[in-house]
Automatic annotation (TrEMBL):
Keywords in alphabetical order: Phosphoprotein
DNA-binding among keywords: no
UniProt xrefs under PANTHER family: HISTIDINE KINASE, HYBRID SIGNAL TRANSDUCTION HISTIDINE KINASE J
Database matches in SUPFAM superfamilies: CheY-like
Sites bearing 4-aspartylphosphate, chain numbering: 52
The keyword Phosphoprotein is annotated on this UniProt entry: yes
Domain spans labelled Response regulatory: 3-119
Gene source species: Nitratireductor arenosus
Annotated protein name in UniProt: Response regulator
InterPro entries attached to this UniProt entry: CheY-like_superfamily, Sig_transdc_resp-reg_receiver
Amino acid sequence: MTLILIVEDNPINRDVLGRRLERRGYNIRFAEDGPAGVQAAGDVMPDVILMDIGLGEMDGWEATRRIKADPRTEAIPIIALTASAFESDRVKSLEAGCCDFDTKPVDLPRLLGKIEGSLQARARSRAADSAA
């Protein structure tokens, strides 16, 4: 079963998104802030991370950079989630190491497509690495 780590500081957003994804067959873990997200990434080794950008002391961009800097977690796909739809936020998310970007409120069918796309891209990358 696919394991998704949701890094989100808003308890209502965590609960709603987590329940919606669980109903679609995903296994869910949560982290409440950037430092906890970085720690959880290494502890649970999720298949994909949904990273809120507007976190407290450590924003989602910094948490993403730290996850990507760790050789154990660098290959985990990270999808940025934010209420801000500015192009500059999308660019900054990709520069930090996110593989994709989505806005809140979450459009679940669109997000599911991005999750599945990131999982397929990771599988292709693993297959290419093992073939080399």
